[in-house]
Write a structure and sequence with these properties.
This protein is α+β, with helices and mostly antiparallel strands. The two termini are 21 Å apart. It binds nickel (II) ion.
């Protein structure tokens, strides 16, 4: 299997809208497995094809503790969205950035599997959040789009600084919680990245 490169915000390729998957062959199954491998290696709980610069409607997820319950959703459609509640989200395309936003708490989704067969899934809690987050990626949308422009600016600056530090090999300094400026995005390593 191959680990794929995950695009990072604000890469404009994250803004492309994905098109439907129409061919269900070995290449698609191989690709879905590589996506899972990439997600597990990055310690994420979800990944959309958009994030690895493939603009097809395919997402992979695994919210299980033991990382042994992979889910592949192809051409997913939301059939039902109910309730609304705040939760904290992160994203593999925005490493180290977490913030709170509101999502539907109960959803029903219809999708195809790798053989092109249709199935429906009811989800709540973290899985419901994760599916909505990954489906946003297929529309070119990121969770920071729900935040204020000021917060997005702070996030862009922080990521840029960290990328520079990574490229020069200097150590990442992680601010302790509470040390960030008011309104700055917080880090909480316990929140899974999606
Ligand atoms: Ni994400």
């Amino acid at each position: 299997m191959t680990k794929l490169v995950i695009l990072e915000y604000p890469d404009p390729r994250l803004r492309k809208k994905a098109t439907a998957v129409t061919v269900f062959d070995d290449a698609l199954r191989h690709f879905a497995n590589n996506m899972l491998e990439t997600m597990y290696a990055a310690k994420g709980v979800g990944l959309a094809a958009t994030q690895i610069d493939v603009h097809k409607r395919l997402i992979v997820l695994d919210i299980s503790e033991r990382r042994d319950q992979p889910l592949i959703l192809i051409n997913p459609e939301l059939l039902k969205l109910e309730g609304s509640g705040p939760g904290e989200e992160g994203c593999l395309s925005l490493p180290g950035i977490y913030d709170k936003l509101s999502r539907a708490t109960h959803i029903r989704v219809r999708a195809l599997d790798c053989k092109g067969e249709s199935f429906e899934l009811d989800a709540e809690g973290l899985l419901a959040v994760c599916i909505q987050h990954e489906m946003d990626h297929l529309e070119g949308k990121l969770f920071v789009d729900y935040l204020s422009e000021l917060k997005r600016q702070l996030i862009r600056r922080r990521l840029e600084k960290e990328r520079k530090q990574r490229s020069t090999g200097s150590e990442l300094r992680v601010l302790p919680l509470g040390a960030a400026a008011p309104g700055a995005p917080m880090r909480r390593s316990s929140t899974p990245a999606l």
